[in-house]
Design goal:
Distance between the termini: 28 Å
Order of helices and strands: EHEEEEE
CATH architecture: Roll
CATH superfamily: Cytochrome b5-like heme/steroid binding domain
Oligomer: single chain
Structural class: mainly beta
CATH topology: Flavocytochrome B2, Chain A, domain 1
Strand content: 15-25%
Largest sheet: 4 strands, mixed
């Protein structure tokens, strides 16, 4: 069985996926999630408060929900350290 290499994203690369011209990605605690199919991220923002293409780890402290919400989205990579 072939192992697929997981893509590592820099902050600059992640910023390219801000939902303005294609895919919508966000990062949380080192994982990169594809939220492109979620209506909650239409236009690259969530509730007008959070922008896609960013690491939202610190912003999650302010959210009315916890990180369990991310289980609904595919992990497509990790953040480069």
């Amino acid at each position: 069985m072939e192992m697929r290499k997981v893509k590592e994203y820099t902050l600059e690369e992640l910023a390219e996926y801000n939902g303005q011209n294609g895919k919508t990605y966000i990062a949380y605690q080192g994982q990169v999630y594809d939220v492109s199919d979620s209506y909650l991220w239409d236009g690259g923002t969530h509730q007008g408060l959070h922008d896609a293409g960013k690491d939202l780890t610190e912003e999650m402290d302010e959210a009315p929900h916890g990180p369990e919400i991310f289980k609904d989205y595919p992990v497509i990579g990790t953040m480069k350290k």
